[in-house]
Amino acid sequence: MPNTVIYEVREYVLDANGETKEYIPATRFRVLSATGPLAIAFGPTDGFQRIESGLGISTIEPFKMVRIKDISGAQNTILVAYAGSDVADSRLTITGGQLGVLDPVGGESFSDIVTALQAVTAAMREDQQLRAPLTTFDGASYYQAVNTTTTVISAAANTGGFIIRWAGVQVQSGNGVAAVRLDDDEVLYALSNNTDMIANCGNIYVPAGVKVDLYSAAAANKAWLWGEAL
Question: How many CB atoms lie within 10 A of CB 52?
């Protein structure tokens, strides 16, 4: 472009709150680096405007003079590029930090997304483990109730969840009820109606804070389970 610089880089070392003037014809001004905040003004009477390292300004008509001022209150080393037209630059420089990648929709950082995916993966693995077919009673304890109520785990003690690996209830003809209960609600239940009855279930996850107990209404009835606290 006629009457303007093609491309030129100049360095300035300003004292605290110091100011300098640069006489150079250009239409592009970019702060390549600075050790502190600064402000610039085009022309001898224009007011100063703050600008950050890495930012640039383009003008339609060439400017001939730039005033550069430190506003950090300390010595400031500033590197500025001037040009008469756009300058293509495919370089990527990361200094003293990490490259941050943001989700264009939610704005979360890449590390936040990775953390969330790791949490989902862990939850899926735990869910698969809890739902996997029962192959062993390792880690499980046996509980039963015969003509009584047996507390397997109280709501207060159930701080991490509980797994019922296998449970059963059995009643004999004319001898009432047997049940496996969660917070006093039956999840496995047998009621004698002049017949013998038996029922079983397994691999039930009980959330934290829920009481598990076994109930039997007669000596001929039985409720039992294998389970473990998480």
Answer: 9
